[in-house]
Structures are given as structure tokens and as C-alpha cells.
Design goal:
about 230 residues; alpha/beta; about 30% helix; globular
């Protein structure tokens, strides 16, 4: 089942053209850390819903220490800010927590370590689940996961994994093509971001392409089983 994920970077989207191109679901950026809502979030959600796509929201986690200028970086505080901007409703994809930043080469700059990131990730996930009453998805990629050591956070395995892995350039995978990537602590990926250079009708610039590991009916059953 084909999908995309978008943010303000894609600008104005013709969602009906996206749907006609065979895209069935869309993850839409909602918030980044405690720095504010994506300015196109509400418009993208409304457009995707009107075009009959299955909609999801993703939130970029910033596992940074609090400071006088950024006092709301604690996991629960970020989750509350995200919830205040969320348009999630039953029938949507699970809210997704984007875990990919800061990159390891920037950890010293931000005074963080792999251990401090792990200590942030689990309470953040738990806060999102408490606020939405839904088990959130986790977005990450293998190298970041390995450097942080998310395998030491086994409770994350109960959250669906949205894996970024780019063995192809600019296209959806074909039937039978799967990312040959082991990512702990998850047994497998529910969603797969297969490229960051896709082209889709209705979007004027490159866009991330995603697939769900199942049919569209499977995906609707999956979101239908989420708690409200």
C-alpha cells in the first residue's frame, strides 16, 4: 500500500491528484520538538482527508536538555505541545514520533549522550500514548537506532516501526522487495520510507515515499483497531 509523508517543504499539494496517482495514505508533519507547529499542517490534513487518504501525523522529537530559552523540552512537555496541535481522530494512522536528530556528530554540541537520549525516548513515547490513548508509531533509521542503542528500550517494540531505508532511488519498491535491515528492538517494520526523492502527481518537488506492509484493507483494519 503506497503512501507519502509531507511537511511545509512540499508547499501547496493537490491532494486529489495525489490520490489519483495511487497514493492511499499520508503522514503529515505536525510539530517539531517544542519549536512550533508546521505551518501547513492543518491545510494538509484537511486536503488529504477530503481526497479520501488515510491520514497520520508525525512529530519530530528533540531529545535535548531544557534551558532558559527552551524550558519545555522535557518528554511530557513536548508531548503536550504536540497534542495541542494535533487533529488526530479515530480512523487515522497512529501518531508517529520521529527519532532521527540530533545526529551523533552533534551530540557534544547539545550536551547529550546516547544514554540521555534513551532516557528521553521512553517517557516521551509513554506521554504520547497517555495523551492520545493510542500506541504511537516510532520513525527512525538503522544507524541512528544503533548509535543510540534503542535495543536497550524493549518497550519500544510494542510500537509500530516506521523505518527509513533507501535501497532505491525515487521510486516505490516492487512486490517482493523489502528492506533487508535489522532494527532492534522491533521484529519488523509496519511502515517503510523507501526513498526521499520520489515524484508524485500533485506535488511539485521531491517527496518521501512510504509503503505499508499489507493491503489497503489491511491498513484500514489496522487503524480501525486503534483505541480512541
Amino acid at each position: 500500500t503506497n503512501g507519502i509523508d509531507v511537511s511545509a517543504a512540499q508547499g501547496l499539494i493537490d491532494w486529489r491528484a495525489v490520490k489519483s496517482a495511487g497514493v492511499d495514505f499520508a503522514y503529515i508533519k505536525t510539530f517539531e520538538g517544542n519549536d512550533g507547529a508546521d505551518p501547513w499542517h492543518a491545510r494538509n490534513v484537511a486536503g488529504a482527508r477530503a481526497a479520501n487518504l488515510i491520514v497520520g501525523e508525525y512529530f519530530v522529537g528533540l531529545p535535548l536538555p531544557a534551558s532558559s530559552t527552551h524550558p519545555n523540552r522535557a518528554p511530557g512537555d513536548q508531548a503536550k505541545l504536540w497534542r495541542s496541535a494535533s487533529l488526530w481522530q479515530p480512523g487515522d494512522l497512529p501518531p508517529a514520533i520521529d527519532l532521527e536528530w540530533p545526529l551523533p556528530q552533534n551530540w557534544a554540541q547539545y550536551d547529550i549522550t546516547a544514554a540521555s537520549i534513551r532516557a528521553w525516548v521512553v517517557p516521551n513515547r509513554d506521554a504520547v500514548q497517555d495523551l492520545w490513548k493510542v500506541n504511537p508509531a516510532t520513525y527512525t533509521f538503522k544507524d541512528w537506532d544503533a548509535r543510540v542503542g534503542l535495543g536497550q528500550c524493549p518497550t519500544l517494540a510494542t510500537s509500530p516501526l516506521w523505518l527509513a531505508s533507501y535501497p532505491f532511488v525515487g521510486r516505490y519498491p516492487k512486490d517482493g522487495e523489502h528492506p533487508n535491515v535489522a532494527v532492534t528492538p522491533w521484529p519488523g517494520a509496519s511502515f517503510w520510507q523507501s526513498t526521499d526523492s520520489g515524484r508524485v502527481a500533485g506535488i511539485a518537488c521531491p517527496v518521501d515515499l512510504d509503503v505499508y506492509a499489507g493491503t489497503t484493507d489491511d491498513l484500514r483494519a489496522f487503524v480501525g483497531g486503534l483505541s480512541a
